[in-house]
Amino acid sequence: MNWQLLPQFVVSGLLTGGPIALTALGLVLVFKSSYIFNFAHGQLLLLGALMTWWLAVERELPLWLSVVLALGLSAILGLAIERFTLRPMTGQPLLSIILMTLGLSQVLQGLALLLFGGAQRNFPQIFSAADPYIITLPWLIDDRPLLLILKQNLVWSFVVAMLGVILISAFFRFTRAGLAMRGASEDHELAQSIGLRIHRIFGLSWAMAGIVATAAGILLATSSGLDLSLSVVVLAAFPVVLLGGIESIPGVIVGGLLIGLVQGVVSAFTVQWVRDMTEIVPYLVLLVVLLIRPEGLFGQKRIERI
Amino acid sequence: MALRPAGEFDVSFARDMATIRRGWQWLLLFAFIAALYALPFYASESTTALVNRIGITIIAVQGLNLLTGLTGQISLGQAAFMTVGGYISALLVGKLGWHFVAALPAAALGAGVVGLIFGLPSLRVKGFYLVMATLAAQFIIPWFTRNAFPQVLNGTQGLNVAVPEIFGLKFNEPDKYIWLTLSALIPSTLVAHNVSRSRLGRAFVSIRDNDLAAELLGINLFKYKLFAFFLAALYAGAAGSLQAHNLRHLNSETFGLVDSIFLLGMLVVGGLGSNLGPISGSIVVEMLTDASTLFGPFVVELFPEAVGGAQAMRPLFFGVTLILFLIFEPRGLAHRWQIIKAAWRLRPFSHT
Q1: 8 A C-beta contact, residue B237 and residue B88
Q2: Which of A164, A148, A236, A197 is CA-nearest to residue A33?
Q3: What b/e readout covers B301-328, taking b as 16+ CB neighbours within 10 angstroms?
Q4: pLDDT in tens for each of the 306 residues of chain A?
Q5: CA-to-CA distance for A12 and A19, rounded, in angstroms?
Q6: Which residues is B303 bridged to in the sheet?
Q7: Is position A276 within any domain?
Q8: In which domain, by residue range, is A16 found?
Q9: How many residue contacts between A and B have a Cβ separation below 8 Å?
Q10: Contact check, Cβ <8 Å, A105/B319
Q11: Which residues of chain A lie closer than 8 angstroms to B258, CB-CB?
């Protein structure tokens, strides 16, 4: 264990947990309202980031405008996805719905490849990479002070992610539409019978998922570059969602930070084979969660009746 | 199901259980199999290669059908078990000098045991929680091949796989390899078909339809769910071994998450839970994605800026096919075939 670097790895791990939590938030958003687990979220993220890149770099629009436009476009994309692929699936078995989002992920991946190509892109820098925030900790190890180097993009992605999480949980708790979404997820028929327009609610949640995905995509693209592999990031968000509990928004924050933290700590080990495990640690956590506590930390336990 | 051609009566139990009922049907079947074996003599090499690939895919999808179609346990890990099979067989033949004929079943068994391990969560969770558990297999197994035992597994480089050789005949090109594929495909189809109509298959179906009720009827969920995972991984292992020796190179990315998605998609296009499903689904999807490459040049002309735009056709074609099937024919081609057969038999009073 490298004690000198441990605090650094812990903090970096926590910070990388931020964008992952934002990604996981998009998954929870759709699940909470429509009981659909969206395997195409990664491709939404990718398309959002690619649209921003295209508007800002190819069309040379100012960055803030292209971000706003991309957010709007991805909301429309989310609406279209709900209307044309998931609405016909209402009432279908779980397998069909899972396969629908998987098929969707393939279509969106193909579209991204077709429209934008597979090349590595230089995403416009939003936060300067040159001067990171440096915090000196008041302890000494081996007579050297402990330094924490915080990359600007990581810090700000973290802040934006947390803001998004707080906004969305407030939305679910205090607004009429948010409450309607929670109601709709409990029971589609019951929600309809008390006059909730569930298709409108699903559409809204998909549009919001599109926006959240694009925000996460932009944050990830500024810190780690933009190419087609961006969609793979979402696979790291699946364990987060399950660890936190699939319908829990606070669970997303805790899950994201925990997974980031565990990854950070594992990568601080000096033993090579432990460090190699960094990339699959989330899935090992996932398997443990599934075996011990399938509903996650904050999820609801569902009782099945025959 | 009970709809039989006119004049077809079962006079014995053997007759009642028969899959193939008439002499001319046997004749047709053997003629078809003979035509497949003789494919290299009259078809072009690319056709033979396509049929060869389809044959290997069918084996993997048949395994998935036993798990997902019959038992109702959704798995996104089928390609990971193919990786296991491929590696085991490559190592047995390459490092230990085993004969391919012995290595193939050994690889299938090894993959089956790994499948058992990743099937364990199925006892506690179902639905998309189970999808997540099998997805974990899809990450952990390739990671293992990349990082563990670098002297043996050769890390990210992967392994070069030996050419199978039986009685001095080297199966080094699709024209010959197809005989191996077919010889594995025929028993695998027989086993899959007979599992589905035996006690085992009925237990699987009852778990799919309602696991609690099945348990109440005295079906041991632990045993049967794990057995379904074992069988699925067994099939995947055999397919992986065949594919590894066919491609003659294997690394952690030969069978990826996308392949798992494709296998599930083929199963849905063909029809879940039927025996015809894996076969027709694999054929249709493989041929469609193969045809999609024909569009490559046009795509490059239409979208000159997109680097690698031609590769976009495969996921696009597959995704659109899958989505259309899910919306318009969720029970797949096998169900459509049943409808056509029934309509033909009831003609001219077709009402289906």
Answers
A1: yes
A2: A197
A3: eebeebeebbbbbbbbbbbbbbbebbbe
A4: 666 677 777 888 888 888 888 888 888 888 888 788 889 999 999 999 999 988 888 888 888 888 899 999 999 999 999 898 888 887 788 888 889 999 999 999 988 888 887 777 777 777 766 667 777 777 666 666 777 777 777 788 788 878 888 888 888 888 888 888 888 877 778 888 888 888 888 899 999 999 999 988 888 888 777 877 888 878 888 888 888 887 788 888 888 888 888 888 888 777 777 777 777 888 888 888 888 877 777 777 665 444
A5: 12
A6: none
A7: yes
A8: 6-126+149-292
A9: 144
A10: yes
A11: 106
* C-beta pairs of A60-63 under 8 Å, 24+ apart in sequence: A63/A124, A63/A126
DSSP string, A227-260: SGGGGGHHHHHHHHHHHH-TT-HHHHHHHHHHHH
Domains contained in chain B, number: 1
* Residue A95 to residue B261, Cβ atoms within 8 A: no
pLDDT digits (tens, 9 = 90+) for B105-130: 999 999 999 999 888 888 877 777 88
Q: In Å, how far from its chain's centre is CA A124?
A: 21
- Does residue B27 fall inside a structural domain? no
Residue A81 maps to a domain? yes
Q: Quick one: tokens of A151?
A: 């990359």
User: Which residues of chain B make contact with A89, given a CB cutoff of 8 A?
Assistant: 326-327
Amino acid symbol at A134: I
Contact B136 A287 (CB under 8 A): yes
C-beta of residue A16 within 8 angstroms of C-beta of residue A270: no
Q: How far is CA A265 from CA A11, A103, A241, A260, B325, in A?
A: 9, 36, 20, 9, 46
Contacts of A57 (CB under 8 A, 6+ apart): A121, A122, A124
The reply to whether residue A276 touches residue B147, judged by beta carbons under 8 angstroms, is: yes
The closest CB to that of B264, out of A89, A102, A114, belongs to: A102
Closest CA to A99 of B308, B108, B329: B329
User: Is the complex ipTM more than 0.90?
Assistant: no
Which CATH number do you get for residue A255? Answer: 1.10.3470
Query: Where do we find the tokens 């709709």?
Result: A184
Its domain, for residue B195, covers: 40-346
Task: List CB contacts (< 8 A) between A102 and chain B.
Answer: 261, 264-265, 322
Q: Cα–Cα distance between A287 and A274 in angstroms, integer?
A: 18
Question: Is residue B30 a part of any domain in this protein?
Answer: no
Give the CATH number for residue B327: 1.10.3470
Rounded CA-CA distance B56/B79 in Å is: 12
Please state, in angstroms and rounded to a whole number, the distance separating the CA atoms of residues B50 and B285.
12
Does residue A94 lie in a domain region? yes
Number of domains composing chain A? 1
* H or E element at residue B166: strand B165-166
Q: Degrees (nearest 5) of the Cα angle A212, A213, A215?
A: 65
Distance between CA atoms of B273 and B68, rounded to whole angstroms? 8
Residue B40, amino acid: P
* Residue at B287: amino acid letter: M
Of residues A43, A3, A51, the one with CA closest to residue A23: A43
What is residue A35's three-state secondary structure? coil
A229 lies within 8 A of chain B by CB: no
